[in-house]
Amino acid sequence: MKWALVLIIVAANTLGDVLNTAGMKRHGEVEHFHPRAIGHLVLHLFRNPLVVGGIASLAVSFGATILLLSIANVSFAIPATSASFLFETVLAKYYLKEDVQWKRWVGATLVAGGVALLSV
C-alpha cells in the first residue's frame, strides 16, 4: 500500500508542478504586489485551466501524503516521494523546453539512486 501511495504522490506532485509552471509561463511575470493587483491575479489564475489543474493535482498529492504518513515513517515517506524531482527535471527539459544544465541532471540522478536505496 505504501508504494502505491508513493506512486500517486510522485505522479500528482509532478503533474501539479508542471501544470502550474506552464500556467504561470502562459500568464507572464507578476509585476505588482499591492492588494488590488493580487486580487486580480487570483481571479485571473482561477480562470487558467493549467493552474487549476495544477492546484487539483497538488491537492491529490497532499491527501496521499497525509495517508502515507499515517502508515509509514517520515524518514521513508519524504525521501521516497522526492522521486518527483527526477520526473520534473525530465519534463522541464522536454515539455517546458527549459535549459537543464548537467549539474541538475547529476542531482536528479542522485535523488533517483537514493529513492532506489529505499526499496532495498
Q: What is this structure, in a nutshell?
A:
With 120 residues, this protein is mostly helical.
Write the layout of secondary structure elements.
Elements lengths: L1 H26 L7 H11 L3 H23 L2 H8 L2 H11 L7 H17 L2
Helix pairs in contact: 1-3, 1-5, 4-6, 5-6
What does this structure look like?
- The chain is mainly α and 120 residues long.
- It has six helices and no strands.
- Helix content is 80%, strand content 0%.
- The model has no long low-confidence stretch (mean pLDDT 90).
- The chain starts with a helix and ends with a helix.
- The chain is globular.
**Range of helix content:** over 70%
**SSE string:** HHHHHH
In whole angstroms, how far apart are the ends?
16 Å
Calculate the mean pLDDT score and round it. Answer: 90
Structure classification: mainly alpha
Largest sheet properties: none
Instruction: Specify the number of helices.
Output: 6
Radius of gyration: 16 Å
Strand % is under 5%
User: What are the segments in which pLDDT stays under 50 over at least 5 consecutive residues?
Assistant: none
Q: What is the global morphology?
A: globular
| β-strand number | 0
